[in-house]
Amino acid sequence: MLGRSDSRPRHLLVLATLLLVSIALIGRLAFWQVVERQHLATLARQQSTVTAAQPSHRGTIYDRTGTVVLATTVDRNRLIGAPAELSPDQRAAVAAQLVTLLGLTGDAATQLTANMNSDRGYVILAAGLDEATAQKIRDGLADGSLGGLSLESQPVRVYPQAGGAPNTSLAAQLLGFVNAGGTGQYGVEQYYQDVLSGTPRVVVADRTTTGISVNNGSQVLDSGSPGADLTLTLDAGLQLAVEQELLAAWVADRAVSVSAVVMDPYTGAIYAEASYPSYDANNYQATATTNPARFMDPVISEIYEPGSVFKLPTAVAALEKKVVTPTTPIYDSGTLRLDNGQTHVSDADLRAMGVIAFQDVIAYSRNVGAARVALMLGHTTKAASIVLYDTWQKLGFGKPTGIDLAGEVAGITNDPRVRAWQQIDLANGSFGQGVAVTSIQLATAYSAMVNGGLKVQPHVVSAIGDHVETPAPGVRLMPAKISSTLIGLMKHVVLAVPFYRDRTLVPGYDVGGKTGTAQIWDAKLNGGRGAWKANIFNYTFVGFIGRNSPQLIIAVEIHEGTPTVNRQGDIELPVESFELFRRIATDAISTTDLPLGTPRQTASR
Questions:
Q1: Is the pLDDT confidence value at 451 over 70?
Q2: Quick check: 407 and 186 in contact, CB under 8 A?
Q3: Which domain range does residue 193 map to?
Q4: Residues 258, 128: one domain?
Q5: Contact between residue 368 and residue 361 where contact means Cβ atoms under 8 Å apart
């Protein structure tokens, strides 16, 4: 006979175990519902909501008049699909209707159809839709012919002014553009990104199966602030005219690029600044695919050997050291042996002009004469080199000017205190070889030479919102007397040399300046040993125009132009750099509201 399987102790043990488990479960439940209630609620909200940042309205960019819009933001619509909510037949029908409604063909139609026939809960089908097209989609949703779709507001940056060349927008390289993420890239858009963008509106939004829904009941964490508008110093009319001139010169001279900047030498305000080739900022994506290098602004980002326009910095050093006056006789021997006969420099025509005045060394651009003057700057080659280098530094070469544009580079100048110069280095530097600069550096340096000796800050923004920016006071670089002498030297260039005079002067105005022509070294040529490019040169002219005194500085550069005449000492382009200067200067004097009516006085101390 088997014994009984039940026993009181066993029952009590089971009962006690069940009681303990129940107490533990109740305690745990109480812990989750009472102690951890807030934490669990927070986790639940995090799964059903998301913190979203909505961009604020981006500031508008105006030209100097405050009336011409150069860049603004408009609202477009983005079409969102939720094909997961539809049956396969519905997806196909909606896709076919959208292809027709949007006028899509080829790859665009194929891509939309593929996206709409997927199993995704959120997919961008189209962007940048205008209001008329968006309304057709709303009508389709209302009458039931379309489904599984929604529209999202999409801010789009537009540049409404056409440029001076086909397929370009006005001042594209100076302005830059705004990418799909709402961030400015290049130029003004990047430099003033924080000012233009403002601060975003931050909300706690609902997370749905089709994406993120921001409604009136959303919790606002930060209301944000709109971006500020910018008023530039740029004159839209002059900018357009300059761009047209650059295109014409580019075509005629078969150049890689042509650039120009028009600047107020007393305030540093930039009235026009452009290069060609350029691009259309409204379609920057196409440029990014084909040639993103065009986004760079050559005026501030491209360095090159300037050639004889650098004879004026040599003149600054020589006048300050009092080793020459405009009439000091200088022996131009055509060729000058240096470094104990190991090296030499020559004039472009290899001809000696004999003893000529220093002002004619500048006017006729004699390399030998400039080299002799540079050697006179000190008792030793090192001392003379330091004087010339320090003059470059003082004038702003070898460092950024600080212009309010993204992408400026410093250029290249070698310090003789770090690596000693030979006589050939000093001689080459005296006429702009062995040094690399930007056009904006040249314009800024020449401004100091003609405005009475003050270094000004180049800038393109004159006002942020209602706040007018006050130009920084000029820093004295040289005595006003030397500036006056330099003005005389520049005027002598275009008055003394018939070749310049006939194609540079503007009737009724004072004009002066200096040319520069430079060979281009290519390290890849000659089997990697390097060589000068054949029949291709860089051409520069920096000069001023004004009534009775300099009132505008204009710097032009024809980069890798192809001459139609190439004889020893005679290298001519269809449109010379000084001719391009005259064309732009003529455009400037016909532009109303620029400072060319009343004579301006140079600094007197």
A1: yes
A2: yes
A3: 53-232
A4: no
A5: no
